[in-house]
Amino acid sequence: MERMSIKEAAVLAEQTMQEFSLRHAPIVEKNFARVLDAMREARISENHMKDSTGYGYGDVGRDALEEVYAAIFGAEACLLRQQIVSGTHAISLALLANLLPGDELLYVGSPYDTLQKIIGLHGETPGSLLESGALYREVDVDFNDLRADVIVDAIGPQTKILAFQRSRGYAWRPALDMVVLRGIIAAVRQRCPDIVVFVDNCYGEFVSDVEPIEVGADLIAGSLIKNPGGGIAPCGGYVAGRRDLVERAAARLTAPGIGAEVGCSLMPQRVFYQGLFLAPQIVGEALCGAVFTAAMLQNLGFQVSPRPDEMRSDIVEAIQFGRRDLLLEFCRGIQRYSAVDSYARPDPWDMPGYTDQVIMASGSFVSGSSIEISADAPVREPYIAYFQGGLSRYHAKLAVCRTLQDMQDAGLL
Ligand SMILES: *Cc1c(COP(=O)(O)O)cnc(C)c1O
User: Most buried in the list 95, 214, 237, 411, measured by CB within 10 Å?
Assistant: First the structure.
């Protein structure tokens, strides 16, 4: 087959990205206005930018930041802490705190790799959901044609939480569109008004102009070293939603009775505010990088998801390489063209929480941050790379083009 040259592919991909950028700009603007107005409404001042020590009683910067995030997400309450170590931790707090023995968690599709351990799916994990006496089930769905009736019919008498994952995660499926989610939640509420709808919001924040709570979800969770930290927040995670549910998550993070009242901010809050302020724009950059990558690899004959012109509800771009060596070299190239740790050569390893070996390219300023340019993959057939992030669209363009050129020079393409 006559393939396009890398140069030709890049010229066309640049055009595709420019068109997307114009189409997408109104969403960035709307989200930016939302962040700005939430900060103005909360009367954020220099006083909120500080750190705190000890118990962290009366930490106004921490409390106001939670108020701002709640407003942005359309939530009653938000627990947002430096002590939440990752997205997995945030999701674990949200779920485990709200499931008592006998309560069932019903997941739509299969959950993200690290959540399988939270649930305790592959043998006993100490502290897992199944160990605690809660129940777990999945409903098999087609994410290309998500049908409300299939989900409603799967709800059982013990189902307490119905959980969705917004992002594709490590799966060849589309991200969950917020308009589709709105319809499903409405149908669910008709039959089961009391069910708690949870959404794993990792990688989804600020991609569209509505967030899951606004379309009817009760509870969401995510990581600050992904979208909402804007590439600036150095750690942390959040749980947001109905006040009673968030309070239970806080009681689990600290202790019953003290909940969200305690927890000092060793890191001055400035970085969290500033990261949030930049987040809508940074997510826009990441999306432009994803569209460029999609177009580029599609032009070179690879299957990508989403395709350049498809609907997006997360920042992830999946590329099917079909071959182990292509997958590994693509990830290694992304690492080589990072600003930090460019000389490192990632290899697949047994990462805690994952079932397959994982390769991760992330030469980031914040360790492991994947709103910064990153490519990772569980090393399994059909060898799909998950590319995401990029604080600048120019970085994504440069890293992807140079990586592909290197692969061609090495005779791989
Ligand atoms: C990243 C991610 C997680 C887990 O977050 P970590 O910060 O890596 O623990 C969970 N779900 C989805 C969809 C994710 O993308």
Answer: 237
The reported pLDDT for the residue numbered 79 is 98
Task: Please name the residue whose Cα sits nearest to atom 7 of ligand 1.
Answer: 87
Atom of ligand 1 nearest to the CA of 370: 1
Q: What is the pLDDT of residues 218-256, one digit of tens each?
A: 999 999 999 999 999 999 999 999 999 999 999 999 999
**Which atom of ligand 1 lies nearest, measured to the CA of 86?**
7
Confidence at residue 2, expressed as pLDDT on a 0 to 100 scale: 59
Give the residue, by CA position, lying nearest to ligand 1 atom 6.
87
200 lines ligand 1 (CB under 6 A): yes
| Cis-peptide, bond into residue 280, ω within 30° of zero | no
Q: Which of 89, 112, 314, 358 to mutate to test the pocket of ligand 1 (most atoms within 8 A of CB)?
A: 112
Using a 6 Å cutoff on CB, does residue 112 contact ligand 1? Answer: yes
* Residue 66 phi, psi dihedral angles, 5° rounding: -65, -40
Top CATH class, 6-30+276-409: alpha beta
Residue boundaries of the structural domains of the chain:
6-30+276-409, 51-267
- Taken as a whole, the chain contains a residue count of 413
Structure tokens at 209: 């102009």
- Side-chain-side CA neighbours of 192 within 13 Å: the count stands at 20
CA of 411 to the centre of ligand 1 (A): 34
Which stretches of the chain drop beneath a pLDDT of 50? 1
- What is the topology classification, in CATH, of domain 51-267? Aspartate Aminotransferase; domain 2 (3.40.640)
**What residue type is 79 in one-letter code?**
L
Q: What is the dihedral of CA 401, 404, 406, 410, to 10 degrees?
A: -160
Q: Please state whether the peptide bond connecting residue 382 to the residue before it is cis, i.e. omega within 30 degrees of 0.
A: yes
For 183, the token pair is 């319809």
Q: Do domains 6-30+276-409 and 51-267 have the same CATH topology?
A: no
Our answer on whether the CB atom of 202 is closer than 6 Å to any ligand 1 atom is yes
Which residues share a beta bridge with 358? 349, 378
pTM of this prediction exceeds 0.70: yes
Instruction: Quote the pLDDT of residue 10.
Output: 98
- Give the per-residue pLDDT at 113: 84
Whether the CA torsion 321, 326, 328, 330 is positive or negative: it is: negative
pLDDT of amino acid 356: 87
Which residue's C-alpha comes closest to atom 12 of ligand 1? 202
